Amino acid sequence: MISARLFINGFSASNGYVRGFLKRYDIFNVAMHGQDGAANLVAAAAAVEDIRRMLEAYPPDRMYNMEETRLLYRCLPSRSYVPRRDRRHARGTKAMRNMERVTLVLCTNATGTHKLPVAMIGQAENPMCFRGEGNACSLPYFNQKREWMDKHVYERWWNTVFLSAVHQRHKGAKSSQIMDNASTHDVNLSAEDVEVNFRPPSSTALDQPMDAGVIASLMRRYKRRLLAILVRSLCVPLVSPPPCPQPNPLRTPSPEPPPLLPQTPPPLPPPATSPMAPHGFRERNDELWMVPAVSVSQVYGAPRSEALEAPDDAADAAAQQGLPAALLPPP
Fold first, then answer.
1. DSSP 78-139
2. Which of 29, 60, 215, 236 would be 110's cystine partner, CB 3.0–4.6 Å?
3. Ramachandran angles phi, psi of 238, nearest 5°
4. β-strand pairing of 119-122 with 102-109
5. 230 vs 236: CA distance, rounded Å
6. What angle (nearest 5°) sits at the alpha carbon of residue 125, between those of residues 122 and 126?
């Protein structure tokens, strides 16, 4: 098509020509993500200046930002580390496409010194994982038919989570709350000691404070905790490799054996014909897809919401040490 517009007839480019052209002019293929392309830059810049003038009367400790995000709490990563000899035999599971989700509501101040409890929005009114003694949800939980924020859930979160935490910390000092102008955020809700500033339409993806790494950090921590729970539930003992033997400097070296004379190797026996594998199965398929001896969910229970609690550096370090030992092959 480009050659026709340039009035060049009979031009045909191969794959090697295209690769060479892209490499020569330093052109890359990238995956488009986010919604910055549809944002109104002019309106967003004007709104940011207005918000900055409004926030001049507040210290950073009393500037808050709230944002919702989706969490696919049962979705596993689609990439992993396997030995080179097994790279063509590795297969995934349906858990990589699991779309069961909850909505998380995050809110914190500008300095990060006051992090409100992460609220969770699910579909069930009383999920089974939170039933029974000692299984109560440690986070504020709200139910909604589509696991998303609406005006009723927003009102409950505003009164029970946000206002109570702000009143307890600042003792009546006026604060500011910045959020997007979604239809689920009730504009009629207000408080005497809280000023709400709504962002203009189609500008959330540009300079939303929560999108500057806060949500991504929470997602990484949750995935790390989830993988650590799965590794601990495997039926494979995590044993470190034995240390390499160190040479003894006091021991006298043994004399070298005399060199062997070249001999004619005996003829090899004819190769034994291995039975044909069933159609659609590879060799050692029964070893790769061995069924676990126990039920992980019955023995260890369903994964709890440990990733959404306060940061635990010791648990993260233990998870990072346990993951490579379980995933990498023995030496």
1. S-----GGGTTT----GGGG----EEEEEEEETTSS-BPPPEEEESSSS-GGG-STT---SS
2. 60
3. -90, 95
4. antiparallel
5. 11
6. 100
List helix spans (H) across 158-291: 163-170, 204-207, 214-232, 285-288
pLDDT one-digit tens code per residue, 305-327: 444 444 566 666 665 665 555 44
Q: How far apart are CA 319 and CA 327, in angstroms?
A: 12
Contact 207, 228 (CB under 8 A): no
Q: Cβ of 123: how many Cβ atoms within 10 Å? A: 14
Tell me: the pLDDT tens digits for 48-101? 787 788 888 889 899 999 999 999 998 888 888 888 888 888 888 888 888 899
Give the pairing of strands 194-198 and 175-179.
parallel
Distance of alpha carbon 106 from alpha carbon 124, whole angstroms = 20
CA distances from 34 to 31, 37, 205 (A): 10, 8, 7
